[in-house]
Write a structure and sequence with these properties.
Structural class: alpha/beta
Helix content: 40-55%
Largest sheet: 5 strands, mixed
Number of helices: 6
Radius of gyration: 15 Å
CATH superfamily: CinA-like
Number of domains: 1
CATH architecture: Alpha-Beta Complex
Strand content: 15-25%
Strand order of the largest sheet: 2-1-3-4-5
Number of strands: 5
Shape: globular
Order of helices and strands: HEHEHHHEEEH
CATH class: Alpha Beta
CATH topology: Maf protein
Length: 163
């Protein structure tokens, strides 16, 4: 996680300076995105809350995402990451929300995505998403790579907002 901290510190400083808030809904990163953002002193100025949405039960209970919300879609897609972000952001009334969903490994998920597959979305004044495939079955390394990609995407959105 140490390699995530410099980026998180920069992002936290921007959020504090702008008086903006953040929520996080993550899955296969297991809380690493939140942990990185909470490692910044004064994180309570911007971090409103987050959750690890790892199962259908947590998806329904925490985000109130129903089968009807999925409209024939599935998890581990950019569309689903956007849905997670919108639901969490609305629930916590934040400026920004980061959401991540994927398959860390060592095997793929039930949807046919390989290990090392993640989809990330940032929702706020600027919205973006991406799909990353590391090609690796290393669970821990994928979790780190997914969290780093989420922070990088969030940074790009913060930069785009100011530019």
């Amino acid at each position: 996680m140490r390699d995530l901290l410099p980026t998180a510190a920069k992002l936290g400083a921007i959020l504090k300076d702008r008086k903006q808030t953040l929520a996080i809904a993550e899955s296969s990163t297991g809380g690493l995105i939140s942990a990185a953002m909470l490692s910044v002193g004064g994180a309570s100025a911007y971090y409103i809350g987050g959750a690890v949405i790892y199962t259908i039960a947590s998806r329904e209970a925490i985000l109130q995402i129903t089968d009807a919300d999925l409209a024939g879609g599935r998890a581990a897609t950019e569309a689903y990451a956007h849905l997670m972000a919108r639901k969490m952001g609305a629930k916590l009334a934040t400026t920004w929300t980061i959401a991540e969903t994927g398959a860390t490994g060592p095997t793929g998920n039930r949807y046919g995505d390989p290990a090392g597959h993640t989809c990330i979305a940032v929702v706020g004044p600027v919205e973006r998403s991406l799909t990353l495939r590391t090609g690796s079955g290393d669970r821990i390394e994928n979790m780190r790579a997914f969290a780093a990609a989420a922070l990088d995407l969030f940074g790009a959105c913060l930069t785009a907002q100011s530019g």
